[in-house]
From TrEMBL:
<dbReference type="InterPro" id="IPR036412">
    <property type="entry name" value="HAD-like_sf"/>
</dbReference>
<dbReference type="InterPro" id="IPR023214">
    <property type="entry name" value="HAD_sf"/>
</dbReference>
<dbReference type="InterPro" id="IPR051400">
    <property type="entry name" value="HAD-like_hydrolase"/>
</dbReference>
<dbReference type="InterPro" id="IPR041492">
    <property type="entry name" value="HAD_2"/>
</dbReference>
<dbReference type="GO" id="GO:0044281">
    <property type="term" value="P:small molecule metabolic process"/>
</dbReference>
<keyword id="KW-0460">Magnesium</keyword>
<protein>
    <submittedName>
        <fullName>HAD family hydrolase</fullName>
    </submittedName>
</protein>
<dbReference type="GO" id="GO:0016787">
    <property type="term" value="F:hydrolase activity"/>
</dbReference>
<dbReference type="InterPro" id="IPR006439">
    <property type="entry name" value="HAD-SF_hydro_IA"/>
</dbReference>
<keyword id="KW-0378">Hydrolase</keyword>
<comment type="similarity">
    <text>Belongs to the HAD-like hydrolase superfamily.</text>
</comment>
<dbReference type="Pfam" id="PF13419">
    <property type="entry name" value="HAD_2"/>
</dbReference>
């Protein structure tokens, strides 16, 4: 549960917390469709985006597309590689840079993400260099279901869990472990999991906001120093 010590560090999730994951998906799908067109001569860009965003086939999307057109399933690995290898610029939520700037004046900033290519995403978002510690869990063969990523980022920041807060959006993975460690937790209710409720009290955040722009005000209400300029 939430601690009572003054906060020293604020740690963030990335996807749907600092930027809309749908944008990453859209650029990845376009890159995958480009790869498919180069390999087969089939221009299926519109159908691929329709499958993902309209038909809600967000798992096995490439398998479904290839099956629909009688194309080899051996192409799936190439399409996944192209999806995650996209390099187009991404845009953070409008308020993200200002919030990171403001909170970063008085707190160390960390990031823990389960998303692939987390550091490349930060570069594409123009957010690289904003954080004092970054942990991309696939690089250590772990996930936010486990304690290790949070302990590592706290160690890198040189702060105990009682003096840190974790800000995320996904009640399935973002809050249970930080709660158990004694970090304070804040949910930004938006993105893919807006309507998803925590599966248990242990997975519920301490606080909830609907826009990242209100995070500095929340920290102030918790009695933490936040630069007001």
């Amino acid at each position: 549960m939430s601690g009572t010590d003054p906060l020293q560090a604020v740690c963030f999730d990335l996807d749907d917390t600092l930027y809309p994951y749908a944008e990453y998906a859209r650029t990845g799908l376009r890159a995958a469709a480009d790869r498919l067109a180069a390999r087969t001569g089939r221009g299926l860009h519109t159908e691929l985006e329709w499958l993902y965003f309209e038909a809600d086939v967000t798992e096995g999307t490439f398998d479904r597309l290839l099956e629909r057109h009688g194309l080899s399933a051996e192409l799936v690995d190439e399409l996944v590689e192209a999806y995650h290898g996209a390099t187009a610029d991404l845009s953070p939520y409008d308020e993200t840079p200002a919030v990171l700037e403001r909170v970063g004046r008085t707190h160390d900033l960390g990031l823990v993400t389960d998303g692939r290519n987390g550091r490349q995403k930060l570069t594409r978002l123009g957010l690289d260099g904003r954080f004092d510690a970054v942990l991309v869990t696939p690089t250590i063969g772990s996930s936010k279901h486990e304690v290790e990523p949070f302990e590592r980022v706290l160690d890198d920041l040189g702060v105990g869990p009682g003096r840190a807060v974790y800000v995320g959006d996904d009640p399935r993975v973002d809050f249970r472990v930080p709660n158990d460690l004694g970090m304070r937790t804040v949910r930004v209710r938006r993105g893919r999991y807006t309507d998803l409720e925590p599966g248990s009290a242990a997975a519920a955040p301490d606080h909830e906001i609907h826009r990242l722009a209100t995070l500095p005000d929340l920290l102030e209400r918790l009695g933490q120093p936040v630069d007001t300029t």
